[in-house]
Amino acid sequence: MSHKQKMPFLPLNIAVHTVSDTRIEASDTSGLALKQRLLAAGHNLADKKITPDDVFHIRAVVSDWIHRD
């Protein structure tokens, strides 16, 4: 395939993880913006989580995502 040929679009499954001690779903403007933009681009929202700024919470969310089918 030459570099001038266009590759077919392949939508990605994307998870959005907001790490914050103060945000809730209603005030998570950055997570909402990411969600809207990835959906508008034709990708899939695999999951969206908000967790406190704590290594154990972050690790639990990422581990769950890694082990999903």
UniProtKB/TrEMBL annotation:
GO annotation, biological process: Mo-molybdopterin cofactor biosynthetic process
InterPro entries: MoaB, MoaB/Mog-like_dom_sf
Cellular component terms (Gene Ontology): cytosol
Annotated protein name in UniProt: Molybdenum cofactor biosynthesis protein MoaB
